[in-house]
Amino acid sequence: MRHGGPAATSATTASTTASTTAPGGRQAPSGPPAVQVRGLTRVYEVPGRRDARVQALKGVDMDLPAGTFTAIVGASGSGKSTMLHCMAGLDQPTTGHITLLGTALGDLRPAERAAFRARHVGFVFQDYNLIASLSAAENVSMPARLAGARVERSQALAALARVGLEHRADLKPHQLSGGERQRVAIARVMASRPSLVFADEPTGALDLESGGVVLDWLGQLARQGATVVMVTHDVEAAASADAVAVMSQGRLATWSASRDARQIAELVHASRS
Fold this sequence. Notes:
The chain is α/β, with parallel strands linked by helices. It is 32% helix and 24% strand. It has a six-stranded mixed sheet, with helices on both faces. Strands 2-1-4-5 form a four-stranded antiparallel sheet, with helices on one face.
């Protein structure tokens, strides 16, 4: 994992349009947005408590240009995972708008939204979300097949090789360790090469070396033009991203382009007050 290096207080790209300034005055990544969020709120009902509500998101705006790698950090309950699931089209906001690659998710019917995700979105789930009856190689091939693409076994094996699991290709998820299942989930996104990659704690079940490989891969995807968004509680992992969005109590508190994990940790701590 990369950490340390010169600190910066504004995250910018070469383009100068469609930027968003977060509270605190720091500049968000700039450029034509591949992901655009406006006025996002998400309210959940509390099971068993009539009329009780929890507001997980409170009017979040965010623009993420193509070819950028953004980490979203924040304390537990800050809304970062809810934000990620809404952006990826896996959860629907209560109010607000999300536009991905120029397509407004709110304008799509459920079947259209699912088809859009299959074509353009890769998601690395915190709990892996593998199909128990399929082998590792078959799990890797599944998203591309759902999108109508033909996937050769050699392609699945190549993706597994990149995460060091080509020798485990024919094993089912229950035969793999937690870290191995996480690597299969990552290889699954690798094989489909989507334009948008959303990752929920992708290094959480991995050792330091394997986590570093995953972060390098996410950065490589962004350099190749994909838009990568990662939620993490690990400030050292966040320091590998181009930009860091700090969330607090359902709001976007500030942005940072620091590669110093200690500075990011300080921003998270300050956002709680």
